[in-house]
Structures are given as structure tokens and as C-alpha cells.
């Protein structure tokens, strides 16, 4: 059973909700079992928490069960549940890079009894590092946020046939000020370490330049989650250092920034691809073929509009 769970609730709209919508969601939460963490990230009611649903979510999916078609007060919600320890592991280590990817984008937290917002700062710092590693020497703030946003869509099977091809740009442009408030502390942190510089400002956004040297690349890689760095070490190798105190440390062998960036890209892409495939299969099994086809059809309809 999913005793402690996170409700990832999506409404049609941005994270900057109107008071009326917030009150509506608050009312909805009152009819659900108590939750430790709840956030709105963009369309979500509690499914039957049977052992079978939990088993499918854990063994086939990525530990999350979504019910995409729940009607409450004449509106449609998509509601998901997950164990809190699974959520925290994904935030810290990008083990599945599923929920962690969602929380790299603006959300409005409604309930947070476990200080997930603070824990998520590790995720946001890692996302900033990954995006910088993938970025050129000069770029705009919007470019950086688009790169961050695109991390969780790399390899996502839905992007090939069931998602709006302009989705990333729409998310960033529609919630630009929210991205700024999320990532400004980390950009300033990286600037104090001379990893980047703010070169100019145009309108409400800044232009950025970064150090593309090998030392800077190593520093960015060191801020990636352990699971990602471990996979990179298998491909790039690592070297062992013995400190004066006799402590053994291992460091990734990075021959070039480009090699490290491409290696990381492939690892993240594979994680997203596997997770999206597993979650799609799990979804079809738990919500049923009719609802599954309906959900995919709605997605494909939106995707088709973006391509025509």
C-alpha cells in the first residue's frame, strides 16, 4: 500500500494559480486521505490504493500511479500517488529521472510536511549543472531554462508522437519569471565560483557567458547526482587519489568538456526513455485500455495541432 504519498496534481493552467483555483484544490484535498506533499504543476483524484495497483506501479512502472480521468465538480483532473521515499530518492539521485524532472519546472506547493521544497534544491542545482554542461560559452537566460526544461524530455517516447513539439518553449516562455525565481540563487552561486558571468541584460532577462575549460567542466560534473556520475565513470573511467590522511577518493576521467557533456546526455536520455516506456505500460495496465487509448488520443491530438 502507498501509505505516504505525493499528490502531483495538474490543472489546466500555469503554476501561478488564481485564488479561486487554489481554494478549489484545497477543497478537493479535504476529500482525500492525508498527504505529506502536494503540488500543482499544470492537470489530477486519488485512485483505489489496492495492492495490485501498487505492484504494477513498482514492478512495471516507476513507482507512480496516475489516474488521468477523474471528474470532480464538473472538471477533469489527473491525480498521481507515489511513496515519499521513492520521490526523495529520485530527487536526490535521478534514479528514474521521472518525478525529479517534473520538479525542475515551476510548481505550486500546496502541502509540504517533509520540507521537499528544501530537498529539491539539490535537484535544481544538479539541473543547472547539467544544463550548463550542455550549453555553449554564451547564451541567454531563456536558453538556459529551455535546456533545463528539456532534460526530462530527452528520449521521452511521447515526444516522438504524442506531445506538442513546442512544449518546452511554451513552458519556459509562459512561466519565465517563475523559472527566474527558482534558478536565480543557483546562477548567483555558480557566478561566485567563477563558473559563469552575467554579461548584459535585455528586457527582463540576462545574458550569460561561462567558462568552458576542463576544470569548469569537472566542477559541473561533480555537482551531478551520484547515480549519473557513477554511470559516467563506467563509460569514461575514473582515477584514484590517496590523500595525506590515507583516504582514497575517486575522480572521473574527463578528457574534454564535449565528451563529458555527450556522455551525460546519453545517460539522461536513456533514463528518461526507459522511465517513459515503463510508465506508459504501467498506465495502460492500471487505468485500462479504454482510458489509456483515450489519454494517448488526447495527447496525439495536441501534438498534431503543433505540427500542422
From TrEMBL:
Single GO molecular-function term? Answer: phosphatidate cytidylyltransferase activity
Q: Name one GO biological process term.
A: CDP-diacylglycerol biosynthetic process
Instruction: Name the membrane topology term.
Output: Peripheral membrane protein
Q: Which GO terms describe its cellular component?
A: mitochondrial inner membrane
UniProt EC number: 2.7.7.41
User: In terms of domain of life, where is this protein from?
Assistant: Eukaryota
Keyword Protein biosynthesis assigned to the entry: answer is no
**Where found?**
Mitochondrion inner membrane
InterPro entries registered for this protein in UniProt? Tam41
Methyltransferase found in the keyword field: no
Similarity comment text for this entry: Belongs to the TAM41 family.
Name of this chain's protein:
Phosphatidate cytidylyltransferase, mitochondrial
Amino acid at each position: 500500500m502507498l501509505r505516504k504519498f505525493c499528490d502531483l496534481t495538474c490543472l489546466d493552467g500555469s503554476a501561478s494559480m488564481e485564488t479561486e483555483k487554489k481554494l478549489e484544490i484545497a477543497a478537493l484535498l479535504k476529500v482525500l486521505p492525508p498527504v505529506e506533499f502536494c503540488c500543482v504543476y499544470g492537470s489530477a483524484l486519488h485512485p483505489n490504493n489496492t495492492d495490485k495497483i501498487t505492484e504494477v506501479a513498482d514492478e512495471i512502472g516507476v513507482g507512480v500511479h496516475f489516474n488521468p480521468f477523474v471528474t470532480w465538480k464538473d472538471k477533469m483532473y489527473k491525480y498521481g500517488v507515489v511513496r515519499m521515499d521513492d520521490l526523495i530518492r529520485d530527487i536526490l539521485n535521478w534514479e528514474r529521472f521521472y518525478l525529479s524532472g517534473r520538479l525542475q519546472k515551476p510548481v505550486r506547493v500546496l502541502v509540504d510536511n517533509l520540507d521537499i521544497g528544501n530537498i529539491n534544491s539539490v535537484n535544481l542545482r544538479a539541473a543547472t549543472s547539467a544544463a550548463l554542461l550542455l550549453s555553449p560559452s554564451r547564451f541567454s537566460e531563456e536558453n538556459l531554462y529551455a535546456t533545463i526544461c528539456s532534460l526530462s524530455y530527452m528520449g521521452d517516447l511521447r515526444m516522438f508522437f504524442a506531445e506538442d513539439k513546442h512544449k518546452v518553449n511554451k513552458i519556459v516562455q509562459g512561466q519565465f519569471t517563475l523559472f527566474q525565481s527558482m534558478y536565480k540563487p543557483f546562477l548567483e552561486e555558480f557566478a561566485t565560483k567563477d563558473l559563469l558571468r552575467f554579461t548584459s541584460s535585455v528586457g527582463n532577462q540576462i545574458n550569460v557567458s561561462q567558462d568552458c575549460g576542463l576544470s569548469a567542466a569537472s566542477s559541473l560534473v561533480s555537482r551531478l547526482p551520484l547515480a549519473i556520475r557513477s554511470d559516467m565513470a563506467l563509460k569514461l573511467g575514473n582515477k584514484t587519489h590517496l590523500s595525506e590522511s590515507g583516504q582514497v577518493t575517486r575522480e572521473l576521467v574527463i578528457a574534454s568538456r564535449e565528451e563529458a557533456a555527450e556522455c551525460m546526455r546519453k545517460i539522461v536520455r536513456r533514463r528518461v526513455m526507459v522511465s517513459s516506456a515503463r510508465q506508459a505500460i504501467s498506465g495502460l495496465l492500471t487505468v485500462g485500455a479504454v482510458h489509456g487509448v483515450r489519454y494517448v488520443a488526447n495527447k496525439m491530438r495536441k501534438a498534431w495541432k503543433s505540427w500542422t
